[in-house]
Design a protein that fits this description.
The protein has about 800 residues and is α/β, with parallel strands linked by helices. The protein has 5 domains: about 1-85 and about 775-800, no CATH class; about 90-105 and about 150-265 and about 730-760, von Willebrand factor, type A domain (Rossmann fold, 3-Layer(aba) Sandwich); about 270-370, Immunoglobulins (Immunoglobulin-like, Sandwich); about 370-615, Rossmann fold, CATH 3.40.50.880; about 625-730, Macroglobulin (MG2) domain (Immunoglobulin-like, Sandwich), CATH 2.60.40. It is about 25% helix and about 30% strand. It contains 21 helices and 36 strands. Helix 10 (about 240-250) links the parallel strand 6 and strand 7 (about 255-260).
Length: about 800
């Protein structure tokens, strides 16, 4: 009654209260009171014929009503201090709605069958004839009849009468549901979650789990959170690293509870990728390796087919005995005609596979009918020259000329592949795509030849590679134009010996480069490092002042040397519209140790193609656009790059962004403008990067808007997006990601059937305390007080009327 009278909630408890007066008119109040008192005494003393008790009752009512009126005129208030229960902590539930959650797993193991049966409320009587095996067969049959997807199991777990959130956590926590895919979307908060989630489909192109966790934390910043539940197969694709997001959650005191759905190794055969070059030459025997991953089909045999889109490429088929894990099928393609060919590899789809969407993959191969023209200028013959010369001569894709500045001066008269002198005419030097400059002192070149060499690289898009040597490279070029072209800063001309244990080490940029990665398989990073350890001892190396801003170091020195991190053993950079590279040792021939020319030849072939192909393909422009690959799948994020030079072929350094245009071929849609941001203005001026999420299939062209340049000074990049959801290529539930999220955040990894144990795992609420509030209630408008006033005055009025008093 009192709680209703004073507007106190049912869950509120009054701790203390006191009265206060808003109007400080006590003198007037007392004057009015005593005036009423004297008037009442005077009035009822004059009515002496009434009984004493009657006069006392009427006089008392008169005085009491007057006192109450005076009291109300002073505007009395009641100040109450009360507490309210702490608000419910929020429990955030993130449901993965990406493509991989639409996979229908084929459950075989007993523990998997029992877990799914519990989630789907499938029961098999213990009295089933045939014992436990017959019971499992019955469960398996019922599961197969329902054929639930991973998302269906999530929905069943959420709506389960005994383990669902409404039953186990709804009374203690405010449960808020989200779906995650490319973004985070709120679904429901409370009792309607089952109805709203029933219509949810698994159609998101990627599951950005880490980004979703970060977004959920940001949306509920400052609110009491009990924890975050992530229900997914954790086939993490793109976005923030989930481990990083989990560490951020732990810093905020929010544990994460991954709930896993799917099989860690589902029965599946997957054609992971085609390992092949993107460019080949006519008459090349192009090696093509098809990687096939499998699990659950050991001992089975499948067909692997490779075919092209042209009549000159006939389908090739090989049989493969599956052993589980990764296997490779080798094909050799004869490049007979120039042009771009689309290669498609397909592995046979077996019965009981989890999905057949990942059994096909494709690769674009560009075949060119043109030779790379190379001029190799060397001083005294040395071991590296001897072996490099044979690599160049044996490569049918190269047209090579050699120039020896020391030795037999009559060699050029008898050998058409040798020159007697460095070309003095500009047109003669401009016909070469690559100049390899060995151990030749700078005094060999006059100013005109150096200017022609610079113009070849800067304006004509050619390339220069310097191979260091003690007679003059690079130390004698310190004050020449070639020093400006090189990606390294030439030191004071000294050479310093290195301990015999020091060897080349691939940098992180080198691991991404096609130049120094010699294992020919990105999965063999350790083998690549082992190969480079063969290049020792390095003997003496020139003292350098590091690499230039904008240069990329591919090889440095091992940790045995104190300045290893700073030393650019192999580095390259863009110079104008061409490229320059520095190779700081002439001991690469040691790669031949024990294995022959395999790795030594591979390094030089990959280096020459990297430097010279861009000119042949017409990619050396004032503005150079690049993408990571030529083929993508829907759901992948495509990295875009632009290297922007001024009219003088120097990197621009005053642009805050650079705009490029993305056009879909054959579509009526307007071109999409994408703003690229600077990568590093200080160390990589003129280089801009951005990304584009591939959401629809088709052929796309990346170009520079016509409004930027009146004449075409930029290349165009073409790439293809195919409708092969990247999520469906990885069918396995990634339990490692789930474990890392739990460990990094302080939570625990759960199976779907363990969802009912979640309330016991959530941390107790030790921080959220009852809220203490103060409320001020004005008493002059409380209906009860006016009712009392009416009763008192009513009594006095009734008795006076009864006695016929005025």
């Amino acid at each position: 009654m009192l709680k209703m009278l004073f507007d106190i909630g049912e869950d509120e408890t009054v701790q203390d209260f006191h009265f206060s007066i808003q109007q400080d008119y006590w003198a007037i109040a007392w004057l009015c009171f005593f005036g009423l008192l004297f008037y009442a005494v005077y009035l009822y003393r004059s009515e002496s014929w009434l009984s004493h008790n009657r006069r006392l009752i009427m006089g008392g009512s008169y005085v009491l009503a007057g006192l109450l009126l005076v009291f109300l005129l002073l505007q009395p208030t009641l100040q109450m201090e009360y507490t309210t229960p702490p608000p419910k902590r929020k429990l955030l539930v993130l449901v993965d709605a990406s493509h991989s959650m639409s996979i229908h797993d084929k459950f075989q193991r007993e523990e998997d069958l029992l877990e799914v049966a519990k989630i789907m409320q499938i029961e098999a009587s213990d009295s089933t004839q045939g014992g436990n095996e017959a019971k499992l067969d019955l469960i398996k049959k019922k599961i197969a009849e329902n054929d639930p997807s991973r998302l269906d199991l999530v929905k069943a777990a959420i709506g389960h009468p005994s383990i669902g959130f409404s039953k186990t956590a709804g009374d203690q926590y405010e449960v808020i549901y989200y779906t995650l895919g490319e973004s985070l979307t709120q679904v429901a908060d409370g009792s309607e979650e089952t109805e709203l989630l029933d219509g949810q489909t698994a159609d998101a192109n990627s599951s950005r789990i880490g980004s979703a966790i970060e977004e959920a934390l940001n949306r509920h910043a400052g609110q009491p959170l009990a924890g975050i539940v992530v229900m997914s197969d954790f086939a993490w694709i793109g976005g923030t690293n989930p481990s990083k997001a989990a560490r951020k959650a732990k810093q905020q005191g929010v544990p994460i509870y991954p709930v896993t759905f799917g099989l860690p190794s589902p029965p599946d055969v997957r054609l992971k990728r085609i390992i092949a070059p993107e460019v080949a030459f006519v008459e090349d025997d192009v090696p093509i390796r098809v990687q096939v991953d499998s699990s659950g089909f050991e001992g089975e045999e499948v067909e692997v087919t490779l075919q092209g889109d042209g009549v000159e490429i006939k389908p090739m088929t090989k049989r493969l005995d599956l052993t589980g894990g990764s296997q490779f099928v080798e094909f050799t393609l004869k490049a007979t005609k120039d042009g771009t060919k689309n290669l498609t590899a397909e592995v046979e789809t077996l019965v009981d596979e989890t999905t057949g969407a990942n059994n096909v993959n494709s690769h674009n191969l560009r075949i060119i009918d043109e030779k790379i023209k190379v001029l190799y200028v060397e001083g005294m013959p040395r071991w590296e020259y001897r072996y490099l010369r044979w690599v160049l001569k044996r490569d049918p894709r190269l047209q090579v000329h050699f120039l020896m500045t020391y030795g037999d001066t009559h060699l050029a008269r008898t050998s058409p592949e040798h020159l007697g002198a460095f070309p003095s005419q500009k047109q003669d030097i401009f016909k070469y795509d690559l100049i390899i400059l060995g151990d030749v002192p700078s005094s060999y070149f006059n100013d005109e030849k150096m200017s022609n060499l610079e113009e070849l690289v800067k304006e004509s898009g050619g390339s220069l590679l310097m191979l260091a040597g003690p007679m003059g490279s690079p130390t004698s070029y310190a004050k020449t134009k070639i020093a400006d072209m090189l990606p390294v800063k030439i030191g004071g001309g000294r050479w310093r010996g290195k301990p015999s244990a020091v060897h080349p080490v691939t940098t992180p940029e080198g691991l991404k480069s096609e130049v120094v990665f010699l294992a020919n398989d990105p999965n063999k990073g350790n083998l690549n490092n082992l190969i480079w350890t063969m290049v020792r001892p390095l003997g003496y190396l020139p003292v350098l002042d590091g690499s230039k801003p904008g240069a990329t170091t591919l090889l440095t020195l091992s940790d045995n040397d104190e300045d290893a991190e700073a030393y650019p053993l192999v580095a390259w950079q863009r110079y104008g519209s061409g490229k320059t590279m520095y190779v700081g040792t002439a001991d690469l021939w040691r790669l031949r140790r024990q294995v022959g020319e395999q790795y030594h030849a591979r390094f030089w072939r990959q280096t020459i193609q990297f430097l010279a192909l861009s000119r042949i393909l017409g990619q050396n422009k004032q503005i150079t656009l690049e993408t990571g690959r030529e083929q993508y799948a829907t759901g992948e994020r495509i990295d875009l790059f632009a290297n922007v030079l001024t009219e003088e072929f120097k990197p621009v350094d005053n642009n805050t962004s650079y705009s490029v245009t993305l056009t879909k071929e054959g579509a009526n849609a307007l071109p999409l403008t994408i703003d690229l941001a600077p990568v590093d203005k200080t160390h990589q001026p003129g280089l801009y990067s951005g990304s584009y999420l591939a959401v629809e299939e088709g052929s796309f062209v990346l170009s520079v808007p016509e409004s930027n340049f009146k004449t075409p000074k930029a290349n165009k990049v073409e790439f293809v997006v195919e409708n092969k959801p990247i999520e469906q290529r990885e069918t396995a539930m990634n339990e490692e990601v789930a474990n890392q999220i739990a460990i990094q955040s302080g939570g625990q990894n759960l199976a779907g059937a363990q969802l009912g144990t979640l309330p016991d795992l959530l941390p107790p609420d030790v921080e959220t305390k009852p809220l203490v509030k103060v409320r001020e209630k004005a008493l002059w408008d409380v209906p009860l007080i006016f009712l009392i006033l009416v009763i008192i005055t009513g009594v006095e009025w009734y008795m006076r009327r009864r006695e016929n008093l005025v």
